Amino acid sequence: MPSISVKEFLFWKKTQLSKGGDNQSLSLLLDSVGGVSTSDLSLLSINPKGDLYLKKNLDYLQSIWQDHLLNSCPIQYLCGITFWRNLKLKVTDKVLIPRPETEIIVDIVFKIFGKKSQKLLFAELGTGSGAISIALSLEYPLWNGIATDIDQDALEIATKNYLNSSKQSNLKFYCGHWWTPFESFKGKLDLAISNPPYIPIDTYEKLPKEVKNFEPKIALLGGEDGLTHIREIIQKAPLYLKEKGWLILENHFDHGEKVKQLLIKNKFKSVEIVNDLSGIGRFTIGRYK
Description:
Elements: E1 3-5, H1 6-18, H2 23-34, H3 38-46, E2 51-53, H4 58-71, H5 75-79, E3 81-84, E4 87-90, H6 104-113, E5 121-125, H7 131-139, E6 144-149, H8 152-165, E7 171-175, E8 189-194, H9 201-204, H10 209-212, H11 228-240, E9 241-250, H12 256-265, E10 268-275, E11 281-288
Parallel strand pairs: 5-6, 5-8, 6-7, 8-9
Antiparallel strand pairs: 1-2, 3-4, 9-11, 10-11
Helix pairs in contact: 2-4
């Protein structure tokens, strides 16, 4: 393990940030590759004495940081991990990097079902890294979950993340397009969740290059108006949900009202647009009949 004085390390850290990037991204690099946690960094800043042992030397860490700055490659992909809620998740360019605002989906579930709940069956359509389903399976050990994705590579990542995060066996993974894997679960789901591709094509073309050039297009592009996949999910949901089963969707920041009307048109009740932390109507929820 390379050793370095704390003062030298803190100077190096300051130098890297002066080149660009943000503190949170550098902290992720130092934690996941360098072996220096965020809490370690805080303590070192307070008491900059002695030596520090790193998993990788500073030249190696600096080369990754340079790649991040020069090529706009997301630091999560370069490090191979991201943190989401209380999970440490493996990510590659085969899956979307789970966003902090998506964490609110778990809070919406808490609000509907309470923190403690009886046994039920939930589904996540388009699981990607598995973040949402893994979080729910850990919070609700009595529940059974089914997480699906159209991409087998994504499912392999999600499965590894589940095995790394949990010793439970209450979450299963299936490959397929939206509702296709659920033919034997018609009328049996208490809850279905999806954060589908919802970026309209004209908006997609203008996305920052760190998103457009690196994150999977299939997980972002929602067709001409951004609602192609959401329409399909909502229209077929009544076949698979129990009576009074819930559907929770993440949608484009200005699509809440349109998604709400689609839910009402398909006989959903208690339809509500839920804001994210920025006050944007990021989620739309409804109960079937």
